[in-house]
Design goal:
One of its GO terms (biological process) is tRNA aminoacylation for protein translation. The protein has 38 residues and is mostly helical. It contains 1 helix and no strands. The longest helix is centred in the N-terminal third of the chain and has 18 residues.
């Protein structure tokens, strides 16, 4: 499994866990997204 594949998998799991726990956020952003880069 490549590093990005692992990150994709973990991001999905975190989002599913937050939904199950009824934890909300305004926007989910990944550090690989352009908006996160300085």
């Amino acid at each position: 499994m490549s590093p990005i594949e692992l990150c994709d998998l973990m991001a999905e799991r975190f989002q599913a866990a937050w939904e199950t726990l009824e934890i909300s956020h305004d926007r989910f952003i990944r550090t690989t997204e352009e908006e996160h880069k300085a």
